[in-house]
Write a structure and sequence with these properties.
Blueprint: H1 3-10, H2 24-35, E1 47-51, H3 54-69, H4 74-80, E2 93-100, H5 106-123, E3 127-131, H6 134-138, H7 141-149, E4 156-165
Antiparallel strand pairs: 1-2, 2-4, 3-4
Helix pairs in contact: 2-5, 3-4
Length: 186
């Protein structure tokens, strides 16, 4: 099996991180891999905001948790109500991926970039988790203020966040994958 296929088959999302920061050269490599993602029309219409400030991450996590608790969606309310829950998983580094609201393919392009980041992170020994709950934060006035702090362009919407760091606890085993979701037309 190639390294790429092995990484895809063995990578798991991590929701428990050590406090240690990722060395800058490794983080730079992960971001460069994100930039290599396929994208619509070669426009590279994405923006990566890398946050390593603990206070900013805690503020973001609090806003997201509050919005989840008030979402009216039982699953989100229950998750956000768990003691100690952090929607950013206490990761020491979080990359917020955004794209212009006007780009109809921006969410797809941003998701592909995030996918490249998590696969390259795994290859480099860094744990990761893609979260979409960050979308809750930026729709609020508090989130809009932080959006500016993070340097996210005003015309961008958040696609997802990529939590990165060194794994603290073993991730949960992957759920079995169903092959009933595949069809062939020959």
């Amino acid at each position: 099996m190639s390294n790429t296929i092995e990484t895809i088959m063995t990578r798991r999302s991590c929701r428990s991180y050590k406090e240690d920061q990722i060395p800058e050269e490794i983080l730079t490599r992960i971001l460069e891999c994100g930039l290599q993602a396929p994208n619509s029309g070669g426009k590279q219409a994405w923006y990566f905001s890398v946050v390593q400030n603990k206070d900013t991450l805690a503020k973001m996590g609090g806003i997201i948790r509050d919005k989840m608790q008030n979402s009216g969606v039982d699953f989100l309310v229950n998750m956000a109500s768990m003691p100690g829950y952090d929607p950013l998983h206490h990761a020491p580094t979080v990359v917020f991926v955004s794209a212009p609201e006007s780009n109809q393919y921006g969410s797809i392009d941003g998701a592909l970039a995030a996918g490249n980041m998590v696969l390259s992170a795994a290859e480099l020994g860094i744990a990761s988790c893609i979260t979409t709950s960050s979308q809750f934060a930026f729709g609020s006035p508090e989130g809009q203020a932080i959006k500016s702090e993070l340097g996210i362009p005003a015309e961008n919407r958040t696609v997802c966040a990529v939590a990165l760091g060194y794994q603290d606890k073993d991730p949960m085993p992957a759920a079995p994958r169903s092959k009933t979701v595949i069809s062939f037309v020959k």
